Amino acid sequence: MIHLIVGNTGSGKTTYSLELKRKTQGIIFSIDKWNKTLFLDDKKPTDGLKWFLERIERSEKIIMDIVSQLENSKTDSILDLGLSKFEHREKFRKYADLNGYKLKIHFLDISKETRLNRVIKRNTEKGETFEFEVCKEDFNFMENWFEKPNKKEMIEGIIITE
Prior knowledge:
alpha/beta; Rossmann fold; globular
C-alpha cells in the first residue's frame, strides 16, 4: 500500500507519518529529510522554488524505484513528500494505477492558526520532526501554493482534522 500524506505546512505530516509507520511497519519517505541531507548545504541564497522542485523530482525517481521494491515485498510506503499540488498527487495515483498498487490518501486538514503555532514551536524546539527552519514568508507562500484535495481525490481517503 502506498500512503500519500497530504497537508499544508505545519499540518503534522511527519508526525502523522511516524504514527502510521508504527501501525503499518511501513517505510517513510520524508522530502524534508531528503532535502536537508542531500541538497540544503549546496543551496545558494539566489536559488528559489525551481531549484527545490528540480531536486524533489530527481529524488522522487529514486523513491518510486524503492516503492516498487517495497510493494514487491508487501511493505507499505508512506510518502511525506509535500504533495501540495493536485498534479503532484496525480503523478503518484497514476504510478500506482499503472503498477497495480493500492494507494490511500491521508489529508491533514488543519487550521492556519494551529499550523503556524506548530511551525513556530518546531523552529524553536528543534525536536524530532525538525529538519530546517520555516520562516513566516515561506509559511505564507505555502498558503497560496497549496491545493486542497478535491472530493474525488478523497474517495476512500482519510481526513484528519483538529
